[in-house]
Design goal:
Length: 289
Amino acid sequence: MASDGAGAAMGMTRSTLLKLVAAVIAIGVPTVGFFVASAQNRPANAMRESIQELGFYPVVPPTTLVGPGSVYHVTRDGRFYRTICRADETDVGKVLVRSPSEETIAHELQQGEYKAGGQVADFLNARLGRNIVETVTYRLSDVAMLEIPLDKNEEIFVKLTAEPGCKAWVDRLLDEKEFVCQGQSVLIASVQYSLKTRAGGDIRTEVSAPEMSEMTSKLAEAVIETPKALVNADLRIEGGKIVSGSGLSYGVKVNPVCATRPDDWYPRRIPWSLYGRAKNFVFIDLLGG
């Protein structure tokens, strides 16, 4: 019996050592393949990078369905959100406030102008059958940031998870080591495109209204991945600029720590980097945190 116990202890020790070795490898020396694959899955986008630098996870595509108070199943890279339990608008409205840092964030984003890739202008010219568009630039406008104080957000979370259906899905996802996070603040805005023609004139004088609508759909798809239906439902043309996607959520912040099970010892945080993703994998998946 003693030898059996010693063997079991040795097996546990070896298992623990193997996990620790894996942790060192995963955190300290991430493989080249991991970085390459992740880079291929997350193409660079200047606007999204700017949103992320301000502490928000970019919402792709922008939507009205992601906001403070509600509970979401979030992919581990923070890119995609699926609603688990939607907060009551009345409960949210009572505690939703404009962020004190809104003015600074709005200034930062509205000052930034981003150039769309040359392929976007090439596509528009090909659709029009003539070489009119020279460059396409875009920026966020009408930026606002709304948030719920953490203590009030906790009250909403408790109310939501008191519902059997909500709690069942939260528990099920946590058992599967998925991320369950509550929205805490949201960045809403519109996107303003500027089309510079080769002749330097107003784009409206050189294309028809249907052509302009078609170009806008392509711009949104190529630049910010906004669904065509949302764009065409709210399209304004101001001078040589196209304004679309008004009042959509372009960035979101969740609570600093996402939900966990009672026996979880490692906090669930959406990572900002590949290093953070690797660290989560090691401590949650390999070490059972």
